[in-house]
Design a protein that fits this description.
homodimer; mainly alpha; Methane Monooxygenase Hydroxylase, Chain G, domain 1
């Protein structure tokens, strides 16, 4: 009975229901695009954090073993990577704002679909919302772990620097008198 | 340069911007459908009110001039019309809820479009919102006026009924003694 389907009624209710399905469709597309972008940005951010962590670890391992020129060049790389991390974080924040817009629009459009009698579109949108939220949650956990690791590395660096500084002090104290002696 | 346009970049920003335009497009369609439905429902409601008003006026004009059977039949029509008015009002409320959903989705999608860099889609949606709101405002004013007129007609009916009742009382008081006299 395809003909019967074609002459389906054009009541306001039916037209509103169809239009509300257009809204859930596009809201779902918008949510997909913003989720992909946010997941990608969070992944890049976590990667940038891991690169920074390994640079800092390499620096920590070489404390006291580098010439000032070598030390300066490793610091240039670390500073560059810190800029990269903060750029990636900015990108996350930007896409996070788009993503939150998409989440809100999806929630409203699911409600509108339900009120318009488009239960299927409502259910599908709610499922999409859950999938998107758990995807983002998962990748957020990874970047939070990387942030925690970086903080640990920084603490380690401070400790190593303190150890090194005190070893230099002792060394200097040992050296200085010798120098004095030599000057004499 | 149509070829240059075809190879436009597929960055997340550009895909999000396109997707947000899909959302404003469908939100605008949804707003149009719900506005049409609500304006239509409010128009039908105002019409039903005007029919009820003229029925009540006809009844008022005929108070005391009808036989019980005639009075009963005019009341059947008035009661039927009151049911029609309340059905129309229910329809208005139902479409009003869809319309409010559409207004909220349009506002959010305009904001999302702006945040995604789709300024034109944002502006177009805001214009549509204003047009829809002023259309509904206009027709709401008409139905509010009809409601006010109905209230006035009811007040008039109560007054006329009171006048008629007191005229019957006087008539009855004048009649009763005569009847008594006749009985005697």
């Amino acid at each position: 009975v395809p003909f019967t389907q074609q002459v389906e009624n054009l009541s306001h209710e039916s037209l509103i229901r169809r239009a509300s399905c257009l809204v859930t469709d596009s809201a779902n597309t918008y949510l997909s695009q913003t989720t992909l972008a946010l997941v990608d940005a969070l992944t890049q951010y976590a990667k940038a954090l891991h690169t920074l962590i390994s640079l800092q670890k390499r620096y920590i391992a070489s404390i006291g073993k580098l010439s000032p020129v070598e030390e300066d060049s490793i610091w240039q790389v670390i500073i560059g990577q810190r800029v990269e991390v903060s750029d990636r974080l900015e990108e996350c924040k930007r896409f996070e704002s788009n993503w939150m817009n998409a989440i809100n629009i999806c929630e409203l459009s699911a409600e509108a679909a339900y009120n318009s009698g488009a239960e299927h579109a409502c259910t599908a949108t709610k499922t999409n919302l859950q999938v998107a939220q758990s995807k983002v949650e998962e990748i957020r956990k990874i970047s939070k772990e990387a942030e925690k690791k970086l903080a640990e590395t920084k603490a380690e660096e401070i400790q190593r620097m303190a150890e090194y500084a005190s070893s230099i002090d002792i060394h200097d104290l040992e050296d200085v008198p010798e120098a004095y002696l030599r000057e004499d």
